[in-house]
Amino acid sequence: MNKNKMALLLLFPLCMASGAYAAVSPEQAKQLGTTLTPVGAEMAGNADGTIPKWTGGYQQKPAGHQPGSFSPLPFPDEKSKFQITAANADQYKSKLSESVYYMLKNYPDYRVDVYDTHRTASAPQWFYDYAAKNAVNASSTKDGLAIENAYGGTPFPIPKTGSEVLWNHLLSWKGTAVDTLYRLYMVDGSGRRSLTSVIDINEFFRYSLPGGEKDFDGWWWWHRAKTTAPGRSAGEALVGLFPNDYEARQPGSWQYMPGQRRVRKLPNVQFDTPNFYVSGLAQFDEAYGFFGSPEQYNWKLVTKREMYIPYNTNSLLASDPEKTLGGAFIDPSVVRWELHRVWEVEGTLKDGKRNAAPKRKVYMDEDSWAIVASDLYDAQGKLWRGGLGYTAVSYDLPGVLTLPYQSLDFQQRAYTIAGYVKNYTPVEPRPRSYFTAEALTQDALR
To answer: Which N-terminal stretch is annotated as signal sequence (predicted)?
Structure first.
């Protein structure tokens, strides 16, 4: 046995014991931009031609586009090729999430309208350059709760573990700094629709600031939001900071309540805490498919597979929610489904941890790393909840975003919609002082 192989064998158990996973070799990293896309997806299409080759994504701005908007539609003249319904769902079961299959079998008139696949995901060249550096330098540590030597791009474009895939989702390309007006809805078991929150949001994805690695302090996402509706919640404001090391740091969240005229630190805006923005019908860790610290679960990388998922669904954001939302599901006529490859990751609750969902599966789009579907199971192992990310083309980034995200409660036959936006506008990053409890107080006193 040569010395290099012996060294690797000696190093491997030490890495496993510490929960650390090393970066890939320079030779492996050469796949990026050749057989793999710059963020790690398979460059080639599939064997039967139903998934095409990635050719750079959708980067042009269509005629008539207004800055920040998702209009016009990217492929307005295309018609669906076929529909998946309760009658033929079994034929396509292997290419559906369990939640979608469940809805087809249990929700009358629910259907999946399948279109030609377009691999529209893209990102700036500097994001790709950072991803290439991360491939050979980044590592996950502390049993996947932290990452090191990663910045600016996909941290693990050639992942080896479930937690690495999850970090790719958390740090996926969503822009550097954006303003958006975020609408959230709840539809109860009777089919009655309620607008639960309208939030004016500024996001600064500090990890994705080009050239900012020298003074990056590990807080990768800076978030500030002000509720403008409904009236009972108007004026509430929130600041949130999220770390790249969930063992050393916990997310920091502060909330201003107009009735109390003070700012308080929120103790727990993660895990299975009911999400107050949607009247508690969904958990905080369901946001965006999965959100917050990964510490409660053992994350297993199961496979990569082909799946029908909502994709290029700008038509949903262009629709009227008063017509689209209601009943047991979103109006199928405004949802475009395509066949894409996804990474499947399974989370199993660790001993001693508590969560209303002891097991969950999440599915990440290979081209964007965004979670596009999820299945959550109860303590008896029965499907309890599901999720769908409706991927739309953002012409201004450029890139694709899972907006809105839907969380479904199958026991109550109810669902929530988060991120029914009209705009997603890149802006200049605001200073660190803007994302503080003190700034919330000063703004409230004006």
So the answer is: 1-22
Q: Give 39-82 pLDDT, tens digit per residue.
A: 999 999 999 999 999 999 999 999 999 999 999 999 999 999 99
CA atoms within 13 A on the CB side of 324: 17
Strand partners, 373: 363, 388
Q: Tell me if 327 is assigned to some domain.
A: yes
Burial (CB < 10 A; 0-12, 13-18, 19+), residue 338, is buried
Cβ within 8 Å of residue 178, ≥6 positions away:
202, 203, 424, 425, 426, 427
Within-domain flag for 71? no
* 405 within 8 A of 418, measured Cβ to Cβ: yes
The string of pLDDT tens digits covering residues 222-256 is: 999 999 999 999 999 999 999 999 999 989 999 99
The answer to pTM > 0.90 is yes
For Cα atoms 49, 301, 307, give the angle at the middle one, nearest 5 degrees.
30
- Selection from 438, 406, 433 nearest residue 222 by Cα: 433
Structural domain includes residue 290: yes
Domain count, the chain: 1
Show the domain range for 373: 82-173+186-194+266-422
Instruction: Check if the beta carbon of residue 95 is closer than 8 Å to that of residue 82.
Output: no
